[in-house]
Each structure stands twice: as C-alpha cells, then as structure tokens.
Amino acid sequence: MYSFQTNAGRRRGKQRAALMRVALFVLVIALAGVTYSFIRASRSERVTGEAIYARAISEAAGAQSAVYRLTQSSGANTINLLAMVRGHVYALQSLNTLAADIYGPGTAVADATLLETCVSTLDECENRWQSGLVLTDLFTTLRDDVDALVATFSQTE
Asked: What angle do CA 73, 76, 135 make, to 5 degrees?
C-alpha cells in the first residue's frame, strides 16, 4: 500500500507561495535599484551636458571679447591677444572632442567648420605678423568668424 500524508499538498502550496513572495520581493528590490541607477545616470548626463554647453558659451564669449580688443588695440599686444583667441578656439575644439567622446561621434557643441576657419585665420594672422605685414583685414575676418560662432550659441538657447 501507499503511504499517504495528510495535508502534504497544502504544505507544498504554502512553501511555493512563500518562495514566490520572496522571489517577488527580490525582483521588486532589483527593479527599484535599477530605476534609481537609471534616474541618477540620466540626471548626471543632463548636468554634464549643461556644464559642457555653459563652458562652450563662456569660451566663445572669451574669444569674442579678445577679438574685439584685438581689432581696437594699437598693436603692442597683438600677439598676446591672438594667443588668447587661439586659446579660446582650442578650448572649444577640446569641448567638441569631449562631447563626442561622451555622447558619441558627430556630437559637437560648437560648429567645427567655423572653428577650423578661425584657426586658419589665426595662422594667417600670425604669419603676417611675423612678416611685418598689415593685419587689419584679417582682424575683421577673424572678428566676423568669431561673431558667427557666438551667434550659433544664441540660436540654440
């Protein structure tokens, strides 16, 4: 004959229910942890993007300020002002690289074509300065290029 335990089915059902409650509890805790991590990561990404963009605006404004002082200077500090403009343009190029590294290729905070135009104009200014030639027309071109760069930030705000 078969031995038969009374209430064996009920005990197994209670064990399964307890096991399901534990599994559900673990899943709820895991879901809460993943949700919390996602919210922190998205907030961090947003704050990082805003910081990079704010720094880019600051660098563009610094370049614009330096280039306006350059067009109004007497020539005594021309090379220093050119170096300042170059530094701001380089910082914008670095921010573009940083944004592309963080957010993926093709991401840029400043127009790369305008930055390259500024660099080539700066190179030409330095070459002419070393040769002792007139720079007034290049200063105007550089000012226009930097103004166009600053205008791209005004359009996206």
From this structure: 65
